[in-house]
Amino acid sequence: MAVDFYNIGDTNRHNCLFSINTKDFELFEKALIEFHISTGLRIDPYGTTRLYKGHVALIRRLLQDALVSKNITKENSKVLTVILEQFIKFDIDLLIVGD
Q1: What's the pTM value of the predicted model, to 2 decimals?
Q2: Per-residue pLDDT tens listing for the chain (99 residues)
Q3: How far apart, in whole angstroms, are the C-alpha atoms of residue 32 and residue 49?
């Protein structure tokens, strides 16, 4: 399973910007719980979600907070850094499609 990210305007899903696989998505879930608490929105690995630039900025901040946490392993830090880099690179409205 993977969660795929598209430009929100790409309604036919022709150009996947990036994906997060199942294992990496599990590491990302802690930030998503905080995201849900802050916004009421849930990113479902089996559904479709729309994120707007403000949401993307919040996810970036939550990932940055997770990376400075002392409770994170070096391996997990690398994975979260890659995910963060994707959210920095694609600072646009996103359509998220789960499997």
Answers
A1: 0.90
A2: 689 999 999 989 999 999 999 899 888 888 899 999 999 999 988 999 999 999 999 999 999 999 998 788 899 999 999 999 999 999 999 999 998
A3: 12
Domains of the chain, residue spans:
2-97
Q: Cα 64–70–73 angle (5° rounding)?
A: 85
Conformational region of residue 13, where left means phi above 0, alpha means psi within -120 to 50, and beta covers everything else: left
CA gap 65, 67 in Å, rounded: 5
Span 2-97: which CATH code? 3.40.1760
**For residues 2 and 96, is the Cβ–Cβ distance under 8 A?**
no
63 closest CA partner among 30, 93, 25, 91:
30
Q: Compute, in degrees rounded to 10, the torsion defined by CA atoms 72, 78, 81, 85.
A: -170
Q: Which two tokens stand for residue 16?
A: 């996947």
